[in-house]
Amino acid sequence: MRRFLIALSLAALASSGVAYAADAPNDAQIAHIAYTAGVIDISAAQQALKKSHNPKIISFAEEMARDHKAVNDQALALVKQLGVTPEDNATSEALNKGAKAEAATLAKLNGAAFDKAYIANEVAFHKTVDSALSDVLIPSAHNAKLKALLKQGLALFTEHLKHAEMVAGEIK
Q1: pLDDT at position 82, please?
Q2: Structural domains counted in the chain
Q3: Residue 150 in domain
Q4: What is the CATH number of the domain that holds 78?
Q5: Exposure of 125 by Cβ count < 10 A (0-12 exposed, 13-18 middle, 19+ buried)?
Q6: Are 128 and 6 spatial neighbours (Cβ–Cβ below 8 Å)?
Q7: Closest of 74, 73, 72, 49 to residue 60, by C-alpha
Q8: How far apart are CA 132 and CA 8, in angstroms?
Q9: What is the H or E stretch that residue 104 is in?
Q10: What's the pLDDT score for residue 135?
Q11: Whole-number Å distance between alpha carbons of 160 and 172
C-alpha cells in the first residue's frame, strides 16, 4: 500500500511535467496541489477517528485533522486575498485518485491491521508530500506569500512525518 501511494504520487508529479522547469506548475496549480494534499490527510484522519480504538492513532489523527484544516484555511484565505482560483491539474487529480483507492483499502481493515496500514500510509504520504514541496512546489512558486505558506506547510509536514514514524514504531 505504502509503495503504491509513493509510486502514484511520484508518477503524478512526473506525468504532470513538474520535473521540467519549462513545464513547472503555475501558482494556481501549486495552490490546488497543496490544498488537495491537506484535504486528503484530513479525510484519512477522519477515517481513522471512525475506525481506530488505539489512543495513539486517535491522537495522531486528531492532530492531522486539526493541523491540515488550519493550513488549508490559511491557503483559502491567501488565494482569496490574491484573487487566484486554484486550478485542478493532473497531479491533484492523481493524488485524489490514489487517496480514494487507499481509503477503500483501509475501509476493509479493522483493529490492529487498520492501525498499521493507516500509520504506514501516513508515513509514506508525508514523505511524498515533503519531497514534492521541497523539490517542486516551493521552487516553482512565484508569489512570495504562496511560497511562504508552502514553506510553513513543509515545516508542518516534516513534523508530522517524524510523529507518524514514531507512532509506526510503537504500533505492534
Answers
A1: 86
A2: 1
A3: yes
A4: 1.20.1260.10
A5: buried
A6: yes
A7: 49
A8: 13
A9: helix 90-107
A10: 93
A11: 20
Which tens digits make up the pLDDT trace of 20-38? Answer: 333 689 999 999 999 999 9
Q: Is residue 42 part of a domain?
A: yes
pLDDT on residue 20 = 31
Low-confidence ranges of the chain (pLDDT < 50): 1-22
Q: What is the DSSP string of 15-75?
A: HTTTTSGGGPPPHHHHHHHHHHHHHHHHHHHHHHHHH---HHHHHHHHHHHHHHHHHHHHH
Cell of 153: 506547510
Tell me the per-residue pLDDT of 64-91, one tens digit each, with 9 for 90 and over.
999 999 999 999 999 899 888 899 999 8
Domain that holds residue 46: 2-6+26-170
Residue with cell 486554484: 86
How many whole angstroms separate alpha carbon 100 and alpha carbon 95? 9
20: in domain = no
- DSSP character for 153? H
pTM equals 0.85
pLDDT at 18 (0 to 100): 36
Distances (CA, A) of 24 to 49, 55, 116, 139, 160: 36, 41, 35, 9, 26
The one-letter amino acid code at 1 reads M
> Scanning the structure block, which residue is given the C-alpha cell 508530522?
160
Q: Any idea which residue has 495513539 for its cell?
A: 56
Written as nine digits, the cell of 158 is: 516534516
Backbone phi, then psi, for 136, in 5-degree steps?
A: -125, -60
